[in-house]
Design a protein that fits this description.
about 150 residues, 2 strands, 8 helices, mainly alpha, elongated
Length: about 150
């Protein structure tokens, strides 16, 4: 099942990185119910009118556990999200620079250096500083190459 935030693994990654607002949790639960999943916690969360992270967050994590989606640590969550951006770069749904910028944000937000993301930080920075179309094109090519490598990594 997919939600507006992606697959369940993506939802868990976005949750860990605090990229899903509490107001979105009832809709995610409703989507899961409509897709055929059902449990008392799902129904309870779908019916929340004023969800808060304090009240709805633990319920949401219980739902993830029930459906067998592990809650990753921040580094793993960052890598899951970065790989998703890498796929979008390679399939052309996200521009190389914008994708690299999003991955750069992950590198900043996640504690600990993630060497897999270093090329994106470098090439996005170079793209920003480029003074000509030729240099920007070179940066975009390098970003696409890094995206292919990250998307194909185990």
């Amino acid at each position: 099942m997919r939600t507006e935030f992606g697959s369940w693994d993506m939802v868990a990654a976005r949750w860990v990185l605090r990229l899903i607002p509490s107001q979105a949790l009832p809709q995610i639960a409703t989507d899961a119910l409509e897709a055929g999943l059902d449990s008392p916690p799902l129904r309870e969360l779908a019916g929340e009118l004023h969800p808060t992270l304090d009240a709805s967050g633990p319920l949401f994590e219980e739902i993830l556990d029930e459906i067998g989606v592990g809650i990753p640590d921040r580094s793993r969550a960052g890598l899951v999200l970065a790989r998703a951006y890498a796929v979008e770069i390679t399939d052309g749904t996200l521009s190389p620079y914008e994708g690299a910028r999003q991955i750069w944000r992950i590198q900043i937000d996640v504690e600990g250096l993630m060497p897999e993301l270093g090329p994106f930080v470098y090439w996005a920075s170079e793209w920003q500083e480029a003074d000509g179309a030729g240099r920007r094109q070179q940066c975009e090519t390098a970003i696409r190459t890094a995206a292919l490598d990250l998307a194909d990594a185990p």
